[in-house]
Structures are given as structure tokens and as C-alpha cells.
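re: ur question from yesterday

yeah so i grabbed the chain u mentioned. its 175 aa long if i counted rite. heres the sequnce exactly as i have it in my notes:
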Amino acid sequence: MANRDNILTDTRFLKATELLRELAQEYEVSPGAILEEIEKRERSIPTSVFNQKLSPLETISKFLRENRRLTIKSIAKLTQRSEKTVWQALDAAKQKMPEPLVVDFTKPCFPIPKLKDRSLSILENVVLYLKDELNLKYSEIAELLSRDDRTIWTVYSRAKEKMSTKKKPTRRTAK
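ran it thru and got these C-alpha cells back, copy pasting raw so excuse formatting
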């Protein structure tokens, strides 16, 4: 309770509250709607962080660790990967790219909960989301993810194929 009281009297909190009110009034939305958008952003990965140097798991792990300050355990839970896998991805990311990721929140973001489907790779999940839910073109996705158009087309095709075979009921043959 003491921490909560400290936050409520912190001048930064008071400034943030005033700023929230000003934004809500200027854009004619409720402060709750703005807070919802902030919460949504906290549960997503900006596509601007993807690059050629790192694999998708390395990128996501690095972003969540360095930008969101999450623990390896939290990252593992969010990405449905083992802690060891996340640790290895972070270690590889640090070696390949010690500098911070470039983050641009004006680009589309990918919701972290979409990674729950382990039957698809991280890249397949991201591409499916961008293509099917945001209706982006292959060339737009390729640019966002720093990949070749043909790679995106292939990843999308494979993901769709996996999804269709996953939905088909398997027929048992009589012995």
C-alpha cells in the first residue's frame, strides 16, 4: 500500500494524469480508452524491431528483455518457449547485435498472445497476423520484417498449409 501512496503523490504521476486528461479532451475519447491503447501496446511487439541480423525469437526476446524489462521466466511464459530456449536466444542476440533495437511505434505491432500457437513458427505467426488480420501485402510485410517478398510468400503459404492440415480431421482406416 505504501508504494501505491508514493505513486499517487509523485509529481510525475500527477503530470501523467493531467496529460491523460488533456489527450482525452483533445481527441474526444475517454481516459480509459487511452489507457486501453497503452495496455494493448504493452502486450505487443512493434514490427520495426525485426531485422536481418536476428532470428524472430532472438528479436522478440531481446525486445521484451531490454525494452519491456521482463525476466527470462516471463518471456518464456509469454512466448510459450522454455526458459533455456529464451536464454539461448537472448545470448545469441547479444552476440549478434549488442546495440539496442530500433523501435518505431508508428509501424504495425504484433500482439504477443498470437505466439501461443506452437504449431507455427514465430515468423509464421507474425506473417499470418499481418497478412490475414491487417490485410497487408506481401511487399509491405517484407519491408516491415526486413525480409524478401518471396520469403514472406513462402512463409505465409507454409503457415496456411499447416493451418489447413491442422483443421482437417484425420480419418482412421479399419483394420
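noticed a couple things. The mean pLDDT is 90. also The beta strands are 44-46, 109-111.
anyway ttyl
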